[in-house]
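Researcher: I need the complex structure. Ligand is adenosine-5'-triphosphate. Inputs:
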Amino acid sequence: MNKSPDTQRMEKIVSLCKRRGFIFQSSEIYGGLNGVWDYGPLGVELKRNLKNYWWRVMVHERDDIVGMDGSILTHPAVLKASGHVDTFTDPMVDCRLTQRRFRADRESVSRKDSIRLALLVSDHRKFNLPTPKVDPSSVFKFFIEFADKMSAQPDILKDDVENFRKAYVSGPAASGDSIRLLQRKGEDKATILKRADAFYQLRNILIPMLSPSTEEVTDSRDFSPENGAELTPPRPFNLMFRTSMGATETEDSIAYLRPETAQAIFVQFKNILEVSRKKLPFGIAQIGKAFRNEINPRNFTFRSREFEQMELEYFCRAEEGMKLLDYWLGERLKFYENIGIGRDGLHVKTVSDEERAFYSKGTYDIEFDFPFGRQELEGVAYRTDYDLLQHQKASGKSLDYFDEETKQRFVPHVVEPSAGVDRAVLALICEAYSEDEAPDEKGKMETRIVLRFHPRMAPIKCAVFPLLKNKEHLVAKAKEIVDLLRPHMNVFYDESGAIGRRYRRQDEIGTPFGVTVDFETLGEKDADLRDTVTLRDRDSMKQERVLVKDLPGILVSRIT
Ligand code: ATP
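Model: Output:
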């Protein structure tokens, strides 16, 4: 099957991530843990750069926001009050053939190209009928023969046949179970019948009586995207991971792994208000792990079961809520542009009244064009005073704010920009991935893979190369430069292989700058060039000659 260019692009990205040490599957040597990922040496740097920049612009560069770091293990009462225990669910469906589970609202399966083949079964054993010794697809022949026999000995089989007839004629199946299977484009009926057979074998109905009837199906979500088998009706599935605290496992020992970082902020609101002595509007920011037992983890790290969030709860007066919602949307869009995600690839979706949480007065989703489609990166929601009121009610502790000017007491409202670290990392990688052409050592053009990370995000900022590894003075000078740069940034020293190869290896991991120490640096060719190096730019591949002592200043100005 031909793959779409985007599928191919995604596969290349996933493979690069593994090959160069950005992201690995968790517990890979044991076959992997589904929906869980480990970040390798480069991935962890990229992730840290992202989180540090978020913290810098959200906390350090502002007077109105303070940080916190809450625990992952969460008291059940917190999540009961927040509504997570009762309503943090996704509708889940199971494939009736393979028992695989899907998230119901995400699987739109058949799009105008399908015929529904309703295969009806009767479990003949229940009716004491003779076993049809025929191929299931020619089951009608069996009925005819059976009808003949029956007319010869009507009394013996009369009751059974009557029961059978009633059930068979009036209902979708005489007994046992029935399944509907989708005949998708390119599939013939025999394949479908085989699939139906598998379904009945699973139920121990060895020779099912099949009565196929077909009907057109369009835009249905009733069928598995994998095999066209019918799905069960949707059931709610709670996404929270439960664990048990202490030596005995009872209902009282339940704790949850937090499904979002936000709740710790609401629960600590009063403490933080008191110690920080902030006035409204002000915010509390947090970065940390969250856990959701996603029904279908997929699209690499996009939907994981363990992930990180960067959340801000920005408390305000009710009348400021809508204005601040728009303000934070603007700030968050700026953030993504400042880490190198172009405005063209970002989209703002205004979440409709039906889709929005009932307590929210306005929500935007910031979406990104991933190779697998346009998907949410971050949600910006005006959550009103719902969260604080819920916790105030459930805990019996006041979570209000005293306005010294107006002498009024009230529970603040909140605007929440909630971003996913892993989704942003994936967006950074997808946005950065590109292929162009560059000359190899012999001047022949070859494909160059390059991650065009914004220098601010790049895991390694500068690579330092001695032109030749067997020239002691070149090596010593290069190591001196590494020491000079190291206090300011993450640098990488590489002396192995031809210089072009070394550049290429750095291009592939997105290192924006390369410094080469050559004989000019040593002043061997031209005394004026002593203590200068070539500084190569990853994207333009242009080289400039700069003084070694100027390097920290030049580079720091380009990476911060
Ligand atoms: P989705 O609709 O994609 O499941 P959501 O609307 O449930 O996401 P929120 O509860 O608003 O997500 O969480 C805020 C942010 O946390 C999301 O915008 C996303 O970046 C991140 N996030 C949520 N679930 C996951 C997940 N399973 N894996 C990775 N990141 C996630």
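Model: Summary of the prediction. The longest helix spans residues 41-60.
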